[in-house]
Structures are given as structure tokens and as C-alpha cells.
Amino acid sequence: MTAPQPEGIDILHVSKRYGTGDDALVVLDDVTLRVRPGEFVSVLGASGCGKSTLLRLIAGLDAGYSGAIMAGGERVRDTSLDRGIVFQDHRLFPWLTAAQNIFAALRNAPLSQRQKQEAVAEHIALVGLEGFENAYPHQLSGGMAQRVAIARGLVNRPRVLLLDEPFGALDALTRGRLQNELQRIWERERITMILVTHDVDEAVYLGERVVTMAPRPGRIRRIVEVALPRPRERSDPRFVALRDAILADFTGETAGSDGAPPAPPRESDEVRSGQPFTAWRLAW
Fold first, then answer.
1. Could you tell me where the DSSP H helices lie in 10-165?
2. 247 in helix, strand or coil?
3. Residues 27 and 17: beta-carbon distance below 8 Å
4. For all residues of the chain together, what is the average pLDDT?
5. Banded pLDDT at 3 (limits 50, 70, 90)
6. Tell me, what DSSP letter sits at residue 28?
7. Which of 117, 230, 246, 283 has a beta carbon 3.0–4.6 Å from 265's, enabling a disulfide?
């Protein structure tokens, strides 16, 4: 299969609410974000900030919102094979083997049977599961099952891969290994990836930019550029400083040295690792 051409995602003044009138629950409020083709963006926020809702809107799983979401210049109106998605729960069919679960994602793909089998074998290898093709989900560890889910999300060669806290249910060691695996896949495939997470370390480790979100209603608080070389080292002082600066955005430790509150964030605000650390003022 030919390599996919990545698509950019334009999220333009998107608001989402449940209910009507005074009792309406506003989940997202005027969110605007432009994701460049081939970029890896981490969307970071606490539970209830609307980050998973935003990902569902990008995927086309929900159309009830105001504003516009554009993929490759076309308005998102429904799900598409061009946008793969991986959830926190691997959601594998328990009665199918690993290979069969991946194959199931190709049901509507315009490929011959042989091409589908080749695509499955290629993606089994891509996620490092050779030898486990015929294993059922209950025979796989949590990390291995999530690798199958990632392969399933990639097998249609999407232009965008959406990741909704894909490692949130895994132990720390497995999560770290799969973060490295995902980084390797992104560097090889170079498709657009949008990761939703509540893990600051994960967001900085994987993302080229980190979009932090404030809750109730969900809105973009800050956009942080992670200008650190890959592969990244979590012990690198620049990594630690950037991670801690972003974490302070959520703990409220954002006042200036004079004790004054920081200025309200703007969509264009970015933090570059090359700037003095004293210039990092991350706001609610």
C-alpha cells in the first residue's frame, strides 16, 4: 500500500453543548486550533475539559456542534477511513484473533483479499507483534492488545490518527514502552496524529505542540511548542523545565514574581524551549 499523504485539521470556533436553554451544559466554548499536516499534537487537560469530545467531533462521530472542522480543506460531516481512531479501551472483538481484528477494519477498503492480507501482515510487523497473529485478545497483555488497536487504526492508511488516551489504562512501564513505539511509528509514517491525554509527561514526550485546555466550559488555555530534539530524554533539564512549567498551568502556580496574576492566554501564545525559563507564564 502506498504511504498516505497527511492532512491538516482546522478547528474553527467550535462550540459544543448538551441540552438547550438555561440548563444547557457547555462542553466546548469557541475552540480554534490549526493542526499542520504530519504534525503530532498533544491535547492536554483534566477530566471534564472536553478534550475527548473534541476528538470525537474531529473523527466525525458527533455532528451536533457549532463552528466548523475541516480535514484537508473539506468539512468533516461523518466518519472516514482517512481518520483512524484509537481509544483507551482497545475494543477488540474477543472472538477474533489479533490478525482478524485488524482485518475487520479493512471490510470496506477497496482492496483485494490478497492486498488486505498483506496490509494486515505489514501492520502486525509495524507494531512488533510478529508471532502473535493468531492469538486471541484474552491471550494478549494489555499493552499487546493496545498495539493491535493501533495497528487496526493504521491499517487503512489514514491521513490522520486520533488517539483518545490510548495508554491511560496501562501500567507505567508498559505505557512508557508504547509511547516509544508510537513515536517510532509516527516518525516512520509521518501522518498527522492528535493525542488526547491527561498525562503532562506523555504530552511533552510525544507532541510537537502541547495544547492545554481549561475545563467548564472547555477552551484552549495555551499552545506550547516543544522544540526539543528526538528521541527525547525525560531526564533532560529542558524537558523537566518545560514539563514543570506546563504542570504549573494546572496547579495554579502561574503568578508572576510580583504576585500579579498572569495575562489571559491567547491562541497564538507559544512557549519555545529556547526561551528563558523565566519567560514561561502559563495561564488558566
1. 51-59, 98-104, 113-126, 142-154
2. helix
3. yes
4. 87
5. low
6. E
7. 283
Closest by Cα among 263, 190, 219 to 28: 219
Q: What share of the chain is helix, strand, coil (3-state, %, to 5)?
A: 30, 20, 45
Strands in 192-197's sheet, in edge-to-edge order, are: 83-86, 160-164, 192-197, 40-44, 209-214, 219-225
Angle subtended at Cα 78 by Cα 90 and Cα 86, rounded to the nearest 5 degrees: 15
CA distance 163 to 99: 21
pLDDT cut 70: percent of the chain above it: 87
**From CA 158, how far away is CA 178, in angstroms rounded?**
20
Question: The pTM is what?
Answer: 0.85
C-alpha cell at 124: 502486525
* Degrees to nearest 5, angle at CA 137 with 132 and 138: 110
Q: What is the dihedral of CA 44, 48, 49, 55, to 10 degrees?
A: 70
| Confidence at residue 224, expressed as pLDDT on a 0 to 100 scale | 96
Those residues with Cβ within 8 angstroms of residue 84's Cβ, 6 or more apart along the chain or in another chain: 152, 153, 154, 156, 158, 160, 161, 162
